[in-house]
Amino acid sequence: MVVLALGGSLWVISPPAAVGSGAPADAFSADRALAQLDILGSGPRPTGSPAAAAVGDRLTARLTALGLRPETRRDTAARVASDGAHRVGRVANIHAVIPGREPGVGAVYLVAHHDSIPFGPGAADDGMGVLTILETARAVLAGPPLRHDVHLLFTDAEEAGLLGARAFVAAGLGDPDRTAVINLEARGNRGRAVMFETGGRSGSVVPALSGGSALATSMAGAVYQVLPNDTDFTEFRAAGYTGLNFALIDGSASYHTPHDTADRLDPGSVQDLGDQVLRATRNLADGPLRTDDAGEVSYFPLFGTTVSYPRVVDLVVAVLAAVLLLGAGVLALRRRVARGRATVLAASTLPLSLLGAAVVGLLVWPLSVLIRPALGGLVFSLPYRPLPYLLGLSLLAVAGTAGWLAVLRRRGVGGPELLLAAGAWFAVLAVVASVLLPGAGYLFAWPALATGGAVLLLVLLGTDSPWRPVVLAVPAAVAVLLLTPVAVLVFPAVGLAAAVVPMLLVALLGAAVAPLGGRLPAGRPVLAGTLALTLGGLATLGVGLGTERVSVDRPAQVSLLYTVDLDTGTARWASAGGAPDAWVDRHVGDDTGSLEEDFPTLYDPGGYRTGPAPTVDLPAAGITVLGQRQNDDVRVVRLRLAVPSGQADMLALYADSVTPRLDGVTVDGAVLPGAVNRPFTDTPWRWGSYLFGVPAGGIEVELRIRGAEPLALRLLTYSAIGPAVAADPPPARVTWSADAAGEAITARTVRV
Question: pLDDT at residue 10 above 70?
Fold first, then answer.
């Protein structure tokens, strides 16, 4: 029973095969979707770049060929970044509508962003989303008209801080009670597409997943809400809209790197995403589409379908399980089915096995980096070949539980006592999760309830019943069915550096299965099993580390920036974190220091290794004073920021605000507060903003300055690092890491 449950759980997390171009016209075909890769181009397409404009033109042409009337909406949007600085950008969102039978009554929005990071082609993030929407639109148009309008929205500047989505939402989508948003994202390039987040009133949209196999769990949504991560869906959710947020998360080693290329996309994953999105689109757009009268639901995959029910049920089940366990436990103790001292011993020592798993989860990252330093560049993801790590860590987590079982068996603890101990902890976790992490309670509530029922059955059947192994297996099977998909999904979501989280889930799984070993002979057999699991886990990890060789297919992800202070003419290389590499070492020394005084965007608390660099002619923005006027004691200064040599990936503007003097700032029409927004810095640059999509002709900035003294401004220009490394290009075994890499930065100070 447990083996079947494990097999069913692993089947749920396996993507389907890709469907060829000969599929029916109204079906989704990964082959047809991937045949449109030419739309994306072959290189990066950051906001405002010529490449981004070309992608926009090709997207518009493809939508027109489908018989639609696309429009490009150009706006300026602003929001606050995670470090407090403002983000402002010119965006170009592309929008088209497939009219429904009842146009204007309700709307389903399919959303993906068409921009990429400055140094990566973004085939998965989010080119795959773009292609999936195009193929979904084609399939919808090939079928009978749906009841409600289907909007296709390709946002700009998601990588710059969700600016395109913010601009579109600000312009208005329609009634939130008659609108659903389906957002497509990617943190990986393979595996199942996970529906990991809904907006409020989730009960109105989760049923749209029915009719096929979806990998959706409210546990993911609950955890995602406490993480510092955002997608375009964040903007829709903040505005009161609900919907479904899909993403690939496996294969995250290529995320935000130059290796997020089309050849690394798994066609089966594209097929899975397309199947789920097309099904959800049809279910929502052909249904009543009312979201105002729906509450929150818990949901999870089970045997190829999505189970959902009102979220309050988790708390009810958790309390019921606790009461049932207490009552059944008392009966079991009175009828000597279980022994009190043995039960207390098992329950009180179970956390030790979880602690052991947590310790292993905490140590695996620093030890792995010590053995294979190249892993240091993958701190936010799993290694390129993660299976040995996942399997090895899982075996070690189970080994910890087996060791706990071995000690207890030597003290005569049997299946009923182990069952009561595991059930007690599942019940506690169920109540806590249902209250503090709504949506996650189901993971523990149903195993706890199954355990309570199993204990009661053991009491009724008696200790000699031949059905006893079956009764003990039921709670284990329930736990395996619910926890296994989540444990497997959490590994790529948090990366090897945070392996402690999935390790704890696997250890809990081991505790749920442990009662089946309650009749194993005490002593050597269980100890031998524990040793075998431990050696197997270590050996499997050893295989992973032993084959973790840097190569062209699995390059080291390194950090290297080129910086030029135009005030002094000083050029420097800078590196923070990333994988150690001889090529990087040729550019920087061993000592670390702060660069924030000269380059306020570079505020890594760990400091930067630096080294002298040759001076290279790179884009550098200039500041032109267009005029100023006095308004009482406030001086209003109008500026133009421009990059004469062409488009830059980003500008950053900082003001000397040690003594707050800015009353306010207007950038390209967006009004920003002038109060200090970088209080953490020890430099004078305590007000800052990032500017995206700046055209060659520049943008206007208006400063409202209190006082007559000149105000110091620091202006940074970000552009491709290519010209700087042309004389000594990175070898093929090296690629840029997802952080502090691949950019050239020039900086100058101007006083106004």
Answer: no
